[in-house]
């Protein structure tokens, strides 16, 4: 496929591939459910019928956008209950996997607050997600701020419940350790390793940090080792910044990852790249989309824990997300939003809009003629 990519391409892999680890390792499951379901607003309403009354964001004519409870886009809240929903937003307010600046535990609330400004229909693309899908906000994962491993288990538990209800979970992070819990749930429920589109300044494939196997810089090495993702169907977009040596990118390339560093994407539209990825993955392969807000340049999104200069533009971010339309996205998230480092709210506004665009790109969303 691709033009001049430094690290690799879909059609030619410049590095020798080692044995694929996931073929010889069983994936790790997580603990059983301990969540208490609450009443669903859509209970008793069969899905798939046109007369169904779908959830819509609270209209501004009812209460102004700055008012009422800040669920995501002011959707109905059904705590920990995905029943009857086609897609749901889930907050994951954690930062105890963070290596530098803490504060992403405040990300979900900030993103929900800023999401109030987003209208339910995309005037630009014609997407009408709330006329197509039943969507809600199911609150936050009950994270444990004193125990990262229990937090990962709790993410996995709630995500399994959501997936088994036939609902597509859309996560609001929270540090990137959360992907390990998400992927363990996806692997178990979907019954196969996932394809992955990972947008990030960092590859997050360290073996350990401070001797720890689980933290926000190790998620995707663990995911390969545990057989959660198919590394040959893993695409990392926006990579940059300093490291400790050339090994940082060698390991994922040896596994078969496709890496697209930011400097190869500067000044370019990402529409052709996404077309290549869609061709490679097709329309049925289950895909996990995870978007670390630090993929975007810190001039747009300073509110994050480990910023790196010369990143993607917000326009390129939209091209990536809109370019996933047609893929079988089975879960997605926007992570590493740290509002303590951005008093303007711009980072959270960006994250909220990216999540809305992800919703618009999900399978089953209708587009109107503009
Ligand atoms: Mn990350």
From TrEMBL:
Entries under Gene3D superfamilies matching the protein: Ureohydrolase domain
Recite the lineage of the species.
Eukaryota, Metazoa, Porifera, Demospongiae, Heteroscleromorpha
What's a Gene Ontology MF term here? Answer: agmatinase activity
The residues that cross the membrane are none
Enumerate the UniProt keywords alphabetically.
Hydrolase, Metal-binding
Tree of life domain = Eukaryota
Check the record and name the PANTHER family matching this protein.
ARGINASE/AGMATINASE (PTHR11358), GUANIDINO ACID HYDROLASE, MITOCHONDRIAL (PTHR11358:SF26)
PROSITE patterns assigned to the protein according to its UniProt record, in alphabetical order: ARGINASE_1, ARGINASE_2, PROKAR_LIPOPROTEIN
Q: Which organism is it from?
A: Amphimedon queenslandica (Sponge)
Q: What gene codes for this chain?
A: 100633875
Please report which protein family the annotation says this sequence is part of.
Answer: Belongs to the arginase family. Agmatinase subfamily.
Query: Which protein are we looking at?
Result: Agmatinase
Q: Might you name a Gene Ontology BP term for this protein?
A: putrescine biosynthetic process from arginine, via agmatine
CDD domains from the UniProt entry: Agmatinase_PAH (cd11592)
Can the keyword Metal-binding be found in this entry's annotation?
yes
Q: Does the keyword Metal-binding apply?
A: yes
């Amino acid at each position: 496929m691709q033009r001049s990519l430094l690290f690799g391409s879909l059609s030619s892999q410049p590095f020798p591939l080692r044995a694929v680890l996931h073929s010889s390792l069983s994936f790790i499951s997580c603990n059983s459910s301990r969540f208490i379901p609450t009443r669903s607003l859509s209970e008793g309403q069969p899905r798939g019928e046109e007369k169904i009354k779908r959830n819509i964001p609270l209209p501004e004519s009812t209460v102004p956008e700055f008012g009422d409870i800040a669920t995501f886009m002011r959707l109905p809240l059904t705590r920990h209950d995905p029943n009857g929903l086609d897609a749901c937003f889930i907050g994951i307010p954690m930062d105890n996997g963070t290596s530098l600046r803490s504060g992403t535990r405040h990300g979900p609330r900030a993103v929900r607050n800023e999401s109030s400004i987003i209208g339910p229909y995309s005037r630009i693309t014609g997407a009408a997600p709330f006329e197509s899908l039943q969507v809600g906000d199911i609150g936050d994962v009950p994270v444990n701020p004193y125990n990262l491993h229990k937090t990962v288990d709790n993410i996995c538990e709630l995500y399994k419940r959501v997936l088994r209800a036939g609902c597509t979970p859309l996560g609001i992070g929270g540090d990137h350790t959360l992907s390990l819990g998400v992927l363990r749930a996806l692997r178990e429920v979907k019954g196969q390793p996932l394809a992955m589109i990972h947008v990030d300044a960092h590859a997050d494939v360290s073996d350990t940090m401070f001797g720890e196997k689980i933290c926000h810089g190790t998620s995707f090495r663990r995911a390969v080792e545990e057989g959660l993702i198919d590394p040959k169907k893993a695409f990392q977009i926006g990579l940059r910044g300093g490291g400790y040596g050339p090994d940082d990118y060698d390991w994922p390339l040896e596994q078969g990852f496709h890496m697209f560093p930011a400097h190869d994407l500067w000044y370019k539209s990402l529409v052709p790249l996404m077309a290549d990825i869609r061709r490679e993955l097709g329309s049925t392969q289950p895909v996990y989309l995870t978007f670390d807000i630090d993929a975007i340049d810190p001039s747009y999104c300073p509110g994050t824990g480990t910023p790196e200069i010369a990143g993607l533009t917000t326009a390129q971010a939209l091209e990536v997300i809109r370019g996933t339309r047609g893929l079988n996205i089975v879960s997605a998230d926007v992570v590493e939003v740290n509002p303590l480092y951005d008093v303007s709210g711009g980072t959270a506004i960006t994250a909220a809009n990216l999540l809305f665009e992800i919703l618009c790109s999900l399978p089953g969303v209708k587009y109107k003629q503009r």
